[in-house]
UniProtKB/TrEMBL annotation:
The chain crosses the membrane at residues 21-40, 52-70, 182-201, 237-254, 274-291, 303-322, 328-352, 364-385, 397-415. It comes from the Bacteria. It comes from Nonomuraea endophytica. This is Putative proline/betaine transporter. Residues 10-419 form the Major facilitator superfamily (MFS) profile domain. Belongs to the major facilitator superfamily. Metabolite:H+ Symporter (MHS) family (TC 2.A.1.6) family.
């Protein structure tokens, strides 16, 4: 491993936006049971949740658009510029939800306001992942990139923990009636203010060396960040979609959907389910850097293959076991098993994707195929799970998750190792002088 100093300012600046972005993204799902009735007609609570999570899924379908627009922007104007743009959009969307009128005030138009906010969030998150993943990869020396990029999921998980922690506090300090009436607005107000703070933090970052070389180099600026340039790398484009498929379904199953599953299916109280998720996600967050550092030593593929095997073979029995838990400790232990399995994907998937593409289309190459995979599989995970439950066939969802992981596992076995990818001229010079590691 390289002994180069860790650029902690870049790691913090590049990843902290993910905390706010994913805090806002996550509180929508975790508070959905409280505000669903505010935006849709009174009726079956499951139907209201389906409508609310349907809009959640729509936000994912905007991510390819956000990935294309902001990925292109990052490749043409810089990683720093794109990262400040994403948190600006997220602040605006969180504020819109916080002040949105309810169904009782304006009827069906309330759902339209919620939809618009989710569309803005989808655009923002679609660009944030790629901009931060590209920045963290390029701004870190070789031999430390797996470790540094793991902080993307550290910050993403931290955002979820802040949201869950706030939910636990509100659940214990407010009545259900107050939460459903107005308390659910509090986390969105906090998210809007936090995004404004991150905007100023990111303005002080320096652009990466790799992007600086590209912008001053011989590549035609008109082709930088374009679909034409991206599709010159069709194999890598399709590879990102396939390797993301299983990981994103498993990730949203054991994180975003976990609280709802423990409450609606296992029968735990909302407060207990939230506490289980909080503790499990905290431990999950802490092990990401260790897994990222391990990939710097042994390569990316072994971790991806471990996730693929574990998720393919373990999802069905694990979900069955979670459905019958009766208390906090059994739910926590089983949740940790699932999260430990997906760490093989979450800790390194960002750096793997960034290492697959050249600098002139790196952000777009990460953003667009990843966003497409998330729109098709990650964003719909909760909706698909609830659909199976509403149809009385909930175990079908377990097999769906395992099947997606199996497809990705095939890709992990056949893809090339990316650990030693050279991103700058100086790195290419060193790579030519040092024998390839095996």
């Amino acid at each position: 491993m390289s002994k180069a100093r860790m650029p902690w300012k870049n790691v913090i600046g590049g990843s902290v936006g993910n905390l706010v972005e994913w805090y806002d993204w996550f509180v929508y799902a975790s508070f959905a049971t409280y505000f669903a009735a505010s935006f849709f007609p009174k009726g079956d609570p499951t139907a209201q949740l389906l409508n609310t999570f349907g809009i959640f899924a729509v936000g994912f379908f905007m991510r390819p658009i956000g990935g294309w627009l902001l990925g292109r922007y990052a490749d043409r104007k810089g990683r720093k510029a794109a990262m400040t743009m994403t948190v600006t959009l997220m602040s605006a969307s969180a504020l819109l939800i916080a002040i949105a009128p309810t169904y009782d005030m304006i009827g069906g138009a309330a759902a339209v306001v919620l939809l618009v906010a989710r569309l803005l969030q989808g655009i923002s998150v679609g660009g944030e992942y790629a901009a931060s993943a590209t920045f963290l990869t390029e701004a870190t020396p070789p031999g430390r990139r797996g470790f540094a990029s793991s902080f993307q999921y550290v910050s993403m998980t931290a955002g979820q923990l802040v949201g869950l922690g706030l939910q636990i506090i509100l659940q214990n300090s407010m009545t259900d009636e107050a939460l459903k009436s107005w308390g659910w607005r509090i986390p969105f107000i906090i998210g809007a203010l936090a995004a404004a703070v991150v905007f100023y933090l990111r303005r002080s970052l320096m652009e990466t060396e790799a992007y600086g070389e590209e912008s001053a180099g011989a590549h035609d600026a008109k082709d930088r960040g374009t679909l034409k340039a991206l599709f010159a790398h069709k194999k890598e484009f399709l590879l990102v979609i396939a390797l993301t498929m299983g990981g994103t379904v498993a990730y949203y199953t054991y994180t975003t959907y976990l609280t709802t599953y423990l409450s609606n299916t296992a029968g735990l109280s909302k407060a207990t389910a939230s506490t289980v998720s909080f503790c499990a996600l905290f431990i999950f967050m802490c092990i990401q850097p260790a897994a990222g550092a391990l990939s710097d030593r042994i390569g990316r593929r072994p971790l991806l293959i471990t996730f693929g095997v574990g998720s393919t073979l373990g999802t069905v029995p694990l979900m069955y076991a979670l459905s019958s838990v009766s208390g906090f400790w059994s739910a926590l232990l089983l949740s940790l098993v699932g999260l430990l399995i997906i760490t093989g994907y979450t800790s390194i998937n960002a750096v793997v994707k960034a290492e697959l593409f050249p600098t002139n289309v790196r952000a777009l190459g990460v953003a667009l195929p990843y966003a497409i995979a998330n729109a098709l599989f990650g964003g719909t995970a909760q909706y698909v799970a609830l659909w199976f439950k509403d149809a009385g066939m909930e175990p079908g969802f377990y097999w769906y998750v395992a099947g997606c992981a199996a497809v990705s596992l095939v890709v992990y076995f056949t893809m090339r190792e990316t650990r030693d990818a050279a991103l700058t001229r100086s790195e290419r010079g060193v790579a030519e002088a040092v024998p390839e590691r095996v």
